[in-house]
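__Protein archive entry__

___
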Amino acid sequence: MRLPLVIALASLGACAEFPQLDGAIDAAARATPYPVLQPLGPLLAQANAQQSTGQSTSSRVAALQTRLASLQARATRLRGPVIDAQTGARLRRGVAVPAAIR
């Protein structure tokens, strides 16, 4: 008896209008190419070369090294698990289905 009601309520969500996303991005943004990712090694070598030739100040190098350390720490955090162990265990246990809707 409750299953048809659940199905009817769930199908109401399919009646919602899909938002118009095509107009949200302007033509200039569509024409822009994706950025090219650069390997870090050559960039660091270039920074070291500029420092040794006097083209770069020590404060600029220190700022870059600080940023590098920050980005490496962020990358380390992003490599970690998305779901902590306690939540993962709870998800693996699953959901208890009430007897009323079985």
In short: Helices lie at 2-12, 27-31, 40-52, 58-79, 85-93. The CA atoms of residues 28 and 34 lie 13 Å apart. The chain has a mean pLDDT of 84. The chain is about 60% helix and 0% strand.
